[in-house]
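testing teh design pipeline on a random one, pls ignore if ur not involved
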């Protein structure tokens, strides 16, 4: 593509005195520059791409976009290189989302379940729908794979190099609709600035990511950015912050309010059933085979979003009644003892998880919760998660969870400040050993919650990301309980 054409399609002009030339690719990583590439210099948390401009040109870059020129002549200087990267990649792939009905879902918790429910509804209604989210990326019923045949799922909202390529693959695969999770990080880092969403959906806002945003007001304002890119909003008004958002928007808004969810007929281990009052006034009975009050909230958001886009209430009913759940979200991987995997990694999510499980447990059943908190992430939630865990579980086991560059012992010490020392708890920093202990010492009637990782199959220590499968460790521990394995040490 000619540089002048690319820049114009992204909303920029070819700088005076710069000769037009062919561009063969776009990257923000100087190590991946090839002959003819356009390099975008991003100032990151740890490194500044502007320091690698000369290296990019040595590797064959034909042009660069940056925030300061650093003595290089073949550049476009812009105030916001991150936004430029997103716009250039969107233009490079031919604005792939413009022909699709695009739905963005934001909020602290519930994004993945709501997005996956909505994808299921569209697919059941016969629409070709893409899904971009924390657990996986899909087109229709098929996972989208990398070149190495691994399912695409890493960041909740992928970086622009991957995001716009994904949207282009969806367009080329015949997608008419796409549902994507949009994080506050993605909004703060301008990953989605070129996109126009038919609907923006808000789930909730509770303390998280304050290491990036500083305070809850700044966190809220980042989330609100999504709605400036949308034609309509679907807002959970079950909290004051949702009501505030709905009141502040100047686009059409569909609200999910407490009175619309009053008729809760069933709540148990097999799922929930309730009657949703649609904005039209029509009652819509829904049954979702996934337990928890969050299934009611997420299901209501998905249903109202779908109906607002012309999906029939009958199709919504049928799709949600067959919803298989989300990998790593209240996922049962064992019985006797019951072992559940869940991604809960915020105070709000952990509390909802524990209350849900307590709600369908019998009095004789003990609940063990095993969790940690991520390193180099918001430390303000650690003590509160310890308090919630010891208040609602019978046994708390504190362990590691992606310590990154922090000392695991320091993280655990902060969580421990919230734990009631008069109640049973254990601190076992090695997560594998902690899981083996939890299962090895459990009674058959116990319920064990492994919280924090959910679908993740890795553990991060320092800069190293190593394979770590909780499902495999659970299987190992269960085999040891049955006397089938000799490797597991359960005598901690």
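output:
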């Amino acid at each position: 593509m000619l540089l002048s054409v690319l820049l114009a399609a992204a909303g920029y002009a070819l700088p005076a005195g710069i000769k037009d030339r062919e561009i063969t690719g776009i990257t923000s990583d100087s190590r991946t520059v090839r002959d003819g590439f356009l390099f975008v210099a991003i100032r990151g948390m740890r490194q500044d791409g502007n320091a690698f401009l000369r290296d990019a040109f040595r590797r064959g870059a034909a042009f660069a976009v940056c925030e300061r020129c650093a003595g290089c002549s073949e550049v476009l200087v812009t105030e916001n290189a991150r936004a430029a990267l997103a716009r250039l990649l969107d233009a490079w792939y031919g604005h792939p989302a413009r022909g699709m009905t695009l739905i963005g879902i934001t909020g602290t918790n519930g994004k993945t379940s709501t997005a996956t429910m909505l994808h299921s509804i569209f697919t059941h209604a016969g629409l070709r729908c893409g899904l971009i989210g924390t657990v996986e990326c899909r087109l229709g019923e098929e996972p989208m794979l990398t070149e190495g045949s691994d399912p695409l799922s890493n960041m909740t909202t992928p970086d622009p190099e991957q995001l716009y390529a994904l949207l282009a693959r969806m367009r080329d695969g015949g997608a008419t609709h796409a549902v994507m999770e949009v994080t506050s990080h993605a909004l703060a880092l301008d990953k989605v600035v070129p996109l126009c969403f038919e609907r923006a959906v808000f789930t909730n806002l509770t303390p998280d990511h304050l290491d990036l945003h500083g305070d809850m007001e700044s966190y809220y304002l980042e989330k609100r950015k999504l709605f400036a890119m949308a034609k309509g909003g679907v807002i959970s008004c079950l909290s004051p912050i949702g009501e505030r958002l709905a009141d502040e928007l100047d686009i059409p808004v569909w609200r999910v309010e407490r009175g619309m969810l009053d008729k809760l007929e069933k709540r148990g281990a097999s799922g929930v059933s309730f009657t949703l009052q649609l904005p039209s006034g029509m009652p819509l009975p829904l049954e979702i085979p996934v337990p928890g009050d969050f299934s009611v909230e997420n299901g209501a958001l998905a249903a109202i979003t779908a109906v607002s886009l012309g999906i029939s209430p009958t199709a919504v009913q049928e799709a949600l009644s067959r919803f298989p759940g989300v990998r790593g979200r209240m996922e049962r991987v064992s019985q006797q003892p019951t072992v559940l995997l869940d991604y809960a990694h915020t105070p709000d999510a952990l509390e909802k998880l524990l209350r849900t499980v307590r709600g369908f447990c019998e009095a004789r059943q003990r609940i063990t919760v095993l969790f940690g908190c991520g390193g180099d992430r918001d430390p303000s939630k650690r003590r509160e998660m310890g308090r919630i865990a010891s208040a609602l579980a019978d046994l708390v086991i504190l362990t590691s969870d992606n310590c990154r560059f922090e000392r695991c012992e320091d993280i655990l010490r902060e969580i421990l400040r919230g734990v009631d020392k008069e109640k049973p708890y254990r601190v076992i920093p090695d997560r594998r050993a902690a899981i083996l202990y939890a299962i090895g010492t459990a009674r058959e009637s116990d319920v064990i919650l492994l919280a924090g990782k959910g679908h993740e199959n890795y553990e991060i220590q320092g800069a190293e990301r190593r394979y770590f499968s909780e499902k495999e460790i659970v299987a190992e521990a269960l085999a040891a309980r049955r006397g089938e394995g000799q490797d597991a040490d359960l005598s901690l």
